[in-house]
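**User:** My hope is that you can spare some time for a protein that puzzles me. As I understand it, each token names a local backbone shape. I would be glad if you read both lines and explained how they fit together. The protein I mean follows directly.
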Amino acid sequence: MKVLVVGANGQVGKHLVQMIQASESLEAKAMIRKEEQASYFNELGAETVVVNLEDNTDTIAKAFSDVDAVVFTAGSGPNTGPDKTILIDLDGAVKTIEAAKKTGVERFVMISSFDTTRKAIQSAPSSFAPYVVAKHYADDWLRRTNLDYTIIHPGILTNDKGNAQVEAAEAVDRGEIPREDVAAVILAALKNESTIGKEFQVVGGKESVEKAIQSL
């Protein structure tokens, strides 16, 4: 299965492409924003495609050639304003979903925020609320499709080295999780069809990634 990783140059994306390339059953296609970002993925033997999420849906859809699944792990980042949050985390996600529908790519894994409920929007600090709003509506757009989706809600992301030990369920207590372990969870979800049509929160824990995903 060939997996298009949208936001491949992000920290979770880089871990994920590396893991996919190391697996036996999957191969990665890294969607990046700039040609100069390609060298990392070339060294892994991964195919790259340069597409900007601010482009239109038809342009984004060109990246979907010959892929079987897509993972949306892109984000505007913490140093941008609400405008970029809307353009990337909401509109970019929706256009990616529409591109998948347009090209017949049914498997879609969305990396969301830990809590994207209406209650979370209302309680979020003003600086963080636009991000939660963007993720809330992007998640909802995906749920309303006929795509084989999985929505992953990771806890507070850290750069600690992963240990492949997590806690995953429809609802868990808020906590931290290494970005490397988020990538491992994505990989396990891609390999496990029982995650289709499901969404779950995940933080660091005491259960292996494989067992946690199988028990969802």
About this structure: The chain has a mean pLDDT of 96. The first strand starts at residue 2 and ends at 6.
